[in-house]
Amino acid sequence: MKVSTQKALTVIFGILSFPFFAAGTFNGKAALKMEKMPNLEAFLAPAVAAEIPTSYPYEAVKAQVILLRSRCYEKLDQGTALGTVIGELIQSEELSETENTEMDRMCAMAVGETENLVLKYGGKTVNGPFFRTGNGMTRSGRDLFQNDQYPWLVNVESPWDIDSEEYMNSISFSPEKFAETLEQQEEGSAEKIWGLGYQEMLLEGTLSAEGMAESIQITGTDQAGYVTEISVGDVVFAGESFRKIMDLPSACFSVQVVDEKLRFLCKGLGHGAGLSQTGAAAMAEEGKDALEILQYYFPQATVEERYRVNGS
């Protein structure tokens, strides 16, 4: 993001924050609560623009806005300070490498048209995660987090993902690079992971890709086909942890040996739970609106007004 834009955001934040803090000083907590909405809404559009593909159709943009607003309000409901939440929105925009005036305009319009709408489950605002492209089936909360604390996240078929150019990706590592990447996680990890025998072969450069592949075993997958547990030598990793360590596109992968290298063949991009951006875009192109898209990917949740307009 350009420096001038960052300065503008800082000025805007200051201007918008003054009424918030002044209201709290002169009118108490009730006024403070009422001021949260306009302060937060002003930062949603640029943050959403940083989260979505530039070719995203409008109804999919609206769905994304509702998810981002829901994420912010869930944090506020859990006690996170408003300034912290807004700071995270600004940071997300700063991470964006693209500037698109038309997308910015569309995001601003989507924020206005979806004002006050959030994703709810059991009467509470909840976070609806999203990812770029899946393997054809979304993951449930149980799949991703290995607990039952996210009942609004269930498995949903997302057939549009299979036709995406991003559906299949592969990353290859030499045995040495693969070992080096894992070793960087903690001191002495080579001995911990592979034992002294493997460590000596690594140092001598005599460990083949086939030999390294033999040390890798996928020991658990979830209902959607994503790896939940993988053992490398004597160490067991959670699937998502391993994906992040190795910087893989997704945790839905298989391991092969190709041209004396370890190849991880991955399906999809991202963690795979919640809304598929590829699927949302396809549904929008088919004529589905934002509410229909969210209802499809979050069938256990509902899109509702956060509060009633009359304040009751």
TrEMBL record:
<feature type="domain" description="Sporulation stage II protein D amidase enhancer LytB N-terminal">
    <location>
        <begin position="39"/>
        <end position="121"/>
    </location>
</feature>
<dbReference type="InterPro" id="IPR013486">
    <property type="entry name" value="SpoIID/LytB"/>
</dbReference>
<dbReference type="GO" id="GO:0030435">
    <property type="term" value="P:sporulation resulting in formation of a cellular spore"/>
</dbReference>
<feature type="signal peptide">
    <location>
        <begin position="1"/>
        <end position="22"/>
    </location>
</feature>
<keyword id="KW-0732">Signal</keyword>
<dbReference type="InterPro" id="IPR013693">
    <property type="entry name" value="SpoIID/LytB_N"/>
</dbReference>
<protein>
    <submittedName>
        <fullName>SpoIID/LytB domain-containing protein</fullName>
    </submittedName>
</protein>
<dbReference type="Pfam" id="PF08486">
    <property type="entry name" value="SpoIID"/>
</dbReference>
